[in-house]
Amino acid sequence: MTNRILFLGPPGAGKGTQAERLAADRELLHLSTGELLRAEVKAGSTLGQEAEAVMARGELVSDALVLAIVRHRLEAHTGGWLLDGFPRNVAQAEALTLLLEELQQPIESVLLLELDDDELIKRLLSRGRDDDNEAVIRNRLVVYQEQTEPLIAFYRSRNLLVPVDATGSIDAIAQRVAAVVG
Length: 182
Ligand code: B4P
Known about the structure:
With 182 residues, the chain is α/β, with parallel strands linked by helices. The chain is 58% helix and 13% strand.
């Protein structure tokens, strides 16, 4: 069974949805950088104030800030984990590799949720979060293509990448995910 898993994919592919289910089923720590950042915004912390405007534009919050959040959580945890929405660029992926070497907890599998842009936009518009209007969604897709997509080659070259078809119902996708993580 795979216990250290990373979810990769465009905004709206269902990373959060699938990660939450899998983490509950397997009793893994679910670390969503998006959720953690939204919690900081809600709490009005200094960190949240810094992140709020960046997220509202659909851009990426600074690497240092996100890394500090992830390090803090992983250092305090023993056992399996599931990272959702992190890393989002090559600098974050390289920093994560170093952190996990330090913690002696290498990634076992990177699940790439694949879905086309029309379906992504449809899902995000119906979710209706503050950063889910069409202009911001299109910007998030551009940011994904420019900054996050290079991670596909990054993890493929390390033999960790497993593509998963993210079309269809939440249950159908969950079954595909369960089949690949064993
Ligand atoms: P995230 O919170 O990671 O959000 P996301 O990529 O938009 O969503 P996800 O793919 O998890 O989709 P979900 O399951 O919700 O990021 C938000 C922002 O935070 C970023 O833009 C950035 O500013 C910042 N951020 C986060 N991490 C960062 C990092 N590492 N570095 C820098 N900045 C960072 O699903 C979407 C919708 O579809 C939901 O409504 C869901 O119910 C629905 N859905 C899911 N599966 C479905 C299905 N099979 N059929 C129909 N609907 C479905």
